[in-house]
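Encode chain A's predicted structure.
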Amino acid sequence: MNMPAARSLAAGFANPVFDSQSAFRACMEALATPGRVRSVGEAMPHDVPLMASAAAVILAICDFETPLYLSPCVAAIPGVPEYLCFHTDAPLLREPSHAAFAVLDLRHDALDLGSFAQGTAEYPDRAATIIALCDSLQHGAALGIAGPGIAGVSEVRVAPLPDSFTAQWQDNRASFPLGVDIIFVAPGRVVGLPRSTRIIAGAG
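Encoded structure for chain A:
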């Protein structure tokens, strides 16, 4: 990919070390405590070409060693591929099956969890983490969740969420320790759903 001049790209983190660590910590805590919403991206510039919270997550967790897949919808947003390549140095893949991280927009993209890297018996950590953009982590049908990092039963709300999500997640959970993890990203917020989490109630 021919990269534009750096001056034509939106800036990354205002304070690269502090802001990157803060966003990375928010992502890790979100996956460690499923259902708990975390704040992220407040310090991102206003002119980033992607949702600021999503940009913060990607810049914090991706680097030259983590192949990145952008859905066609996300890749078509003007300036997004160039911006993410410049600030992360992550190689962009055209197919999702070998990506370490994948970025989707649930407002426009179909979701097929089985199309992403599932890991192997020897290396389950090679499964993909999906960064799923959405409108809200406060609205939408409540999904009851249980598992590691959850005291008893909690819930997660994501809008929009495909009708098939619960069935897809049950299949994903049945493959544990294989299977994908998801970080849902809404404006200013993230919530994690690791593959160890069970959905115990909800529509879909």
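Confidence is low (pLDDT under 50) at residues 1-7.
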